[in-house]
Write a structure and sequence with these properties.
Elements: H1 46-57, H2 63-66, H3 72-77, E1 83-85, E2 89-90, E3 100-101, H4 111-122, E4 126-131, H5 142-155, E5 160-164, H6 174-180, E6 185-187, H7 197-200, H8 206-219, E7 224-231, H9 237-249, E8 254-259, H10 276-288, E9 293-296, H11 306-320
Helix pairs in contact: 4-5, 5-6, 6-8
Length: 321
């Protein structure tokens, strides 16, 4: 957890707070030139503008903007936005992440209803709700997740709900509360291979995250579970295979694999750009290992095409049964 110290002089112009204060002492990492298969068009469509207006009017935060997602133009054009609850400031400081870090503000008690109103106004068939890590809260924000899920169920009962949660590390009983709120999909990303956790995800624990997803299946076998990793951080192919096996052992239904993209020179460097052919290979292997659903492309992100993928996921389960 990072605490920001106010060093401003009374009467002097207020300096903008750094987005990543904990990374300022990091040496600048080299930035690799993006290959053609990573490039995306700038968001300029009317649908994009309408989605942005709905998000702004409800005072909501989206991970699409905060994490600088490359797919924002395509998704917002279709009115698909991933809501990020509990503020825009995270208590963790992952080396890959573009989310602001520091001491978060108090929870917005009106947020659950505002999220539900936005879902209703957009007419979403499927919504993805994620959050920052809130290690400052006794339950890690579990009750807030519950309230958001209940509010959406009340406002938009036909909308299926996918959540992308923190790991609730050292928050006894928190995960159980969220599981019992019965989202349709419970997603928590492993992000990378175990060897790279200390450098890339130092505030988290690989096997705790894996156990969280296993617990979902034990408590509610009908809930779909989902997890994802980034590649291009220096992992080996064998390590990716091992993560797939670990996920399957935990009963995870859906795996996402996407290319890591470096937000700034102060973030972890891209080791290499994985080719589309390699992603195709990962997809084939993951399907052979028994995942019901696989999304493995350079631009894959946790909520990319989440609505269409949920329909495929449900169909795959029915076909298997």
């Amino acid at each position: 957890m990072v605490t920001l110290i106010d060093m401003t002089v009374p009467g002097a112009p207020e300096k903008p707070k750094l987005r990543h204060p904990e990374k300022q002492k990091n040496p600048d990492a080299p930035v690799l030139r993006k290959p053609d298969w990573i490039r995306v068009k700038a968001p300029v469509s009317q649908g994009f503008k309408e989605t942005r207006e709905i998000v702004r009017s409800k005072g909501l935060v989206t991970v699409c903007e905060e994490a600088a997602c490359p797919n924002i133009g395509e998704c917002w054009e279709k009115k698909h936005a991933t809501m990020m609850i509990m503020g825009d400031t995270c208590t963790r400081a992952c080396a890959f992440c573009n989310i602001r870090t520091g001491m978060p503000a108090a929870l917005d008690e009106k947020e659950p209803e505002n999220v539900a109103l936005a879902v209703e106004e957009m007419g979403l068939n499927h919504v993805v709700i994620t959050s920052v890590d809130r290690d400052d809260l006794a339950d890690g924000g579990a009750e807030h997740f519950e309230r958001v899920i209940r509010a959406i169920r009340a406002r938009a009962p036909g909308t299926t709900i996918e959540i992308l949660t923190p790991d609730f590390l050292r928050k006894p009983g928190a995960a159980e509360r969220v599981i019992d709120a019965q989202p349709d999909v419970f997603n928590h990303n492993l992000e990378t291979v175990p060897r790279l956790y200390r450098a890339v995800r130092p505030g988290s624990r690989y096997f705790h995250s894996l156990r969280l997803l296993e617990k979902v299946k034990e408590r509610d076998p009908q809930q779909f579970t989902k997890s994802g990793i980034m590649v291009g951080l220096g992992e080996s192919r064998d390590e990716v295979m091992q993560v797939m096996d670990d996920m399957r052992s935990a009963g995870i239904d859906f795996i996402t694999i996407g290319q890591y993209l470096q937000p700034t020179r102060k973030h972890a460097a891209v080791d290499r750009f994985v080719t589309p052919q390699e992603f195709k290979s990962y997809e084939s292997i993951a399907r052979a290992k028994g995942f019901l659903m696989v999304s493995a492309t350079p631009l894959t992100r946790s909520s990319y095409h989440a609505d269409a993928d949920f329909a495929k996921l449900r169909a795959a389960r029915q076909a298997k049964q």
